[in-house]
Every structure is written in C-alpha cells, then in structure tokens.
C-alpha cells in the first residue's frame, strides 16, 4: 500500500527540487523522479510508475518531462500536471537563457567544468541505483528479462531507431498476453471533457506560432516556431535524435553554425532539466545573430522562449488528453501485457543511456564503428581514460551504495570533490 497523494504544496516543493537537481539527461531524471515519488515518499507504487514510464516512452518529445507531468496529473489532476511539468523545465530554462546570453557576449567558457565533473559522477551512481530498483519491480519473468536484454542490445549495438525498439517490445507483450479479466478498469473519461481539454492545450501550444506568422510572416521567430513546433509532434528517440533535424534546419536557415551547435549541446549538459533545452540556445543565439542590432537582445529572448514553449507545451496535450484514456485502456489484459514489456524495454534503454553517459564521462575520446549500416559499437579510446572522472565515479558509487548518504548530501560532496580536484590540479 502507498501513502497516497500528498498536499499540493508538498508536491510543488518536490517538483521544484526535481527541476533544480535534474541533471544527467532522461536516465538521471527518471531515476530522480522514481527516488522521490516511489522510494522516498511512497506516493505511488513501482508498478504504476513503470506503467506511466512505458506510456511516456510511446509519446513524441521529452519523456522525462512527460513523466513528471503525468505524475503531477495523477496526484492532483490538471493543476498538478501543470505544476510538475513547468517546474521540471523552468529552472533549466532560466539557466539556459543566462548561459546563452553569456555565450553571445563572451563565447565559450569552461568555468563550470569542475562542478559538472562532480555532478556527472553523482548522476552515474544515481542512475545505476535507480536502474536496479526499477528493474527489480519491472522484470518479473523470463520474457521481461529477455525483452530488457534485447532492448539494451538493440540500443547499444545497432542503429535501429528507438521507436522500433518500443514497438517490438509492445508487440511481444501483446502477442504473448494470456486471457483474463485484467485489472479493474476505471470508468471511461467523458469524451466531451477530453475534447475540451485537448482543444485548449492544442490552442495554447499553437498560439505563439500563429501570432508570430500573423505579426511577422517569414521572420526568424515565425520559422523557429514552425520548426520546433513540428519537431515536437514527431520527435521520437530523445534529444540526440531531434538534434540532427534541428542542426540541419539551423544551418540551412542561417541561425547557427555546426560548431555553435556543439557549444550549445555542451552548455545544455551543464543545466538541470531535459537535454533538449539545447533548443533554447538555438532559438536565443539564432535570433540574436539574425536580428537587427537594435532588436537583437529582445528577439533573442523571444527566440529562446519560442523554442522552449513549442518544444515542451505539447507534453501537456499528450498527458492531459491521453492520460485518462491510457488509464482505462492500459489495464486491459493485452494492452497491460504490452505495456509491461515496454516497461521491461525501458529498463534496457535506461541501461544503455547509463552506459553511454558513463563512457562519455570516463573517456575523453573514442569512436563509433558501424558494420553494414546496421551494427554500431561505441569504442572508447582506453588511453584517453579520465582518471579524475574515474575516481569521482568510484567515490559516488561508494557514497550511494555503501554509506547510504542522502542524495542531496551525496551531490554536495561530489561537487566539492570536483572543485577540490581542480584546485589541486588533478582534473
């Protein structure tokens, strides 16, 4: 039995905490949400969390923000979903706008390096801890274990797209489902109410795009709204899958150069919240560089906000309009089994993300080898091992698994350790 929903004020404090500490990409953010909602506070059980995660992985856009929105909606309805979804993004958005402004004035900067090194080491430990706990609750039979392993292998060693991995997992579950009544099915949500909610969310999402085209047709803001808005509806596979499209568009439209895109990605790694906040950098810097001098700063801020709104607003549409239908549909035997297998696949996907993150943290260089356009293996350069990062990661693992230090204390220790290594010249 769970403790049940908290007060709205208590939940808001937790969503703000998640927004401030959500480093490490989707794997780290999902781990943090699981820790706060399931492990520490027992607001929802692990099965419901896993089912929600599987639903969010079926949606386009940033799955971690959608999961936060779903959790808030599940606990306190639409106002809870709005609070959770916004607070998940706003701290990182504010930081990204500030870093983008510093970038256009001063260019590249490595001032945050020591802090980030400690944070990233902490994220590796937290992700591994969450992976074990989510896996224990999700992997309930051999079929689920096989699906999790297959998903990990497909993501780590092939070029198969993420949506195909999820579709295959769902198909396995659907085809292997046994008969039965399934769980108790909640009443169907009123279609009229759902249609109204969907219309309001859709109108709010598209309003800035329409306004930009009405006020300034073919302007950079109008094209940014159209570019990021259309991408939000089709962007499966996370931030890196979407970056290829945005990078091509930004270059073709003269917003940013390829090196600037890489700089933006590096800055996005330093912020809490979804990695896809790099789009805020694209909007800010792209608008700044293409606007008349007298309007540059104002349009830069609007460009960053346009990118953020059109990227993240659709998540509220998917959750508020689709969540009640999912709650009803997802408890039937075949869909429930399909979602269980998608949850198992999610464990494999999180494992692959953790491996990817750890390799990029521990090694300064490497290469990806492809065979026949299908197999793909990431090979780190063993000679480029970052000894400081390795030491910090081992410390984070020890603090997490051996001492059971509270998360905030562990993160504080890791940040201090990263700064200390910089001071003594070891990083």
What's the topology here?
Elements: H1 8-21, H2 25-40, H3 46-57, H4 63-106, H5 113-138, H6 142-157, H7 162-176, H8 191-215, H9 220-234, H10 239-252, H11 258-269, H12 278-290, H13 296-329, H14 333-362, E1 366-371, E2 375-380, H15 387-401, H16 407-423
Antiparallel strand pairs: 1-2
Helix pairs in contact: 1-4, 2-4, 2-5, 3-4, 3-14, 4-12, 4-13, 5-14, 5-15, 5-16, 6-7, 6-14, 7-14, 8-9, 8-13, 9-12, 9-13, 11-12, 12-13, 15-16
Structure, briefly:
It contains 16 helices and two strands.
Question: Explain this structure to me?
Answer:
This protein has 427 residues and is mostly helical. It folds into 2 domains: 8-149 and 355-423, no CATH class; 204-315, no CATH class. It has helices spanning 8-21, 25-40, 46-57, 63-106, 113-138, 142-157, 162-176, 191-215, 220-234, 239-252, 258-269, 278-290, 296-329, 333-362, 387-401, 407-423, and strands at 366-371, 375-380. It has a two-stranded antiparallel ribbon with strand order 1-2. A hairpin with a 3-residue loop joins strand 1 and strand 2. Helix 3 crosses helix 14, helix 7 (162-176) packs antiparallel against helix 14 and helix 12 packs antiparallel against helix 13 (296-329). The radius of gyration is 21 Å and the shape is globular. The mean pLDDT is 84.
Please count the helical segments.
16
- Total number of domains: 2
How much of the residues is beta strand, in percent?
under 5%
Cα-to-Cα separation, first versus last residue? 47 Å
Task: Walk across the major sheet and give the strand order.
Answer: 1-2
Largest sheet: 2 strands, antiparallel
> What structural category characterises the helix and strand content?
mainly alpha
Oligomeric description of these chains = single chain
How much helicity do the residues have?
over 70%
The ordered string of helix (H) and strand (E) elements is HHHHHHHHHHHHHHEEHH
**Poorly predicted parts:** none
Shape: globular
What is the averaged pLDDT score?
84
How many extended strands?
Answer: 2
Task: Give the C-alpha Rg.
Answer: 21 Å
């Amino acid at each position: 039995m769970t403790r049940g929903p908290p007060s709205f004020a208590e939940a808001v404090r937790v969503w703000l905490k998640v927004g401030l500490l959500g480093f490490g990409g989707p794997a780290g953010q999902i781990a943090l949400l699981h820790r706060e909602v399931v492990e520490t506070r027992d607001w929802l059980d692990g099965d419901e969390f896993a089912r929600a995660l599987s639903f969010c992985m079926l949606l386009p856009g940033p799955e971690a923000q959608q999961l936060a929105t779903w959790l808030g909606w599940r606990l306190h309805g639409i106002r809870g979903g709005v609070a959770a979804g916004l607070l998940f993004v706003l701290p990182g958005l504010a930081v990204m706008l500030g870093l983008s402004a510093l970038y256009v004035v001063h260019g590249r900067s490595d001032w945050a390096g020591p802090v980030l090194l400690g944070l990233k080491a902490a994220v590796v430990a937290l992700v591994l801890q969450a992976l074990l706990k989510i896996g224990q609750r999700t992997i309930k039979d051999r079929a689920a274990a096989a699906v999790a392993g297959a998903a990990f292998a497909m993501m780590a060693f092939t070029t198969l797209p993420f949506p195909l991995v999820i579709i295959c997992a769902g198909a396995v579950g659907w085809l292997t489902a046994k008969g039965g009544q399934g769980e108790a099915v909640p009443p169907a949500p009123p279609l009229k109410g759902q249609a109204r909610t969907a219309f309001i969310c859709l109108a709010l999402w598209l309003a800035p795009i329409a306004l930009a085209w009405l006020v300034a047709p073919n302007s950079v803001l109008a094209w940014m709204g159209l570019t990021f808005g259309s991408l939000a509806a089709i962007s499966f596979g996370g931030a890196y899958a979407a970056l290829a499209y945005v990078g091509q568009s930004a270059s073709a439209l003269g917003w940013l150069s390829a090196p600037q895109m890489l700089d933006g990605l590096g800055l996005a790694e330093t912020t809490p919240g979804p990695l896809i906040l790099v789009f805020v950098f694209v909007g800010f810097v792209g608008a700044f560089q293409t606007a008349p001098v007298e309007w540059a700063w104002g349009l830069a801020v609007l460009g960053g906000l346009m990118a953020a709104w059109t990227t993240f607003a659709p998540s509220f549409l998917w959750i508020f309009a689709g969540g009640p239908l999912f709650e009803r549909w997802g408890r039937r035997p075949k869909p429930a089994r399909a979602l269980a297998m998608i949850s198992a696949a999610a464990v494999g996907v999180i494992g692959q993300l953790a491996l990817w993150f750890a390799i990029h943290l521990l090694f300064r260089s490497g290469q990806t080898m492809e065979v026949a356009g299908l197999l793909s293996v990431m090979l780190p350069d063993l000679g480029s091992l970052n000894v400081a990062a390795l030491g910090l990661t081992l410390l984070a693992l020890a603090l997490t698994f051996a001492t059971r230090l509270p998360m905030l204390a562990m993160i504080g220790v890791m940040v201090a350790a990263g700064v200390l290594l910089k001071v003594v010249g070891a990083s």
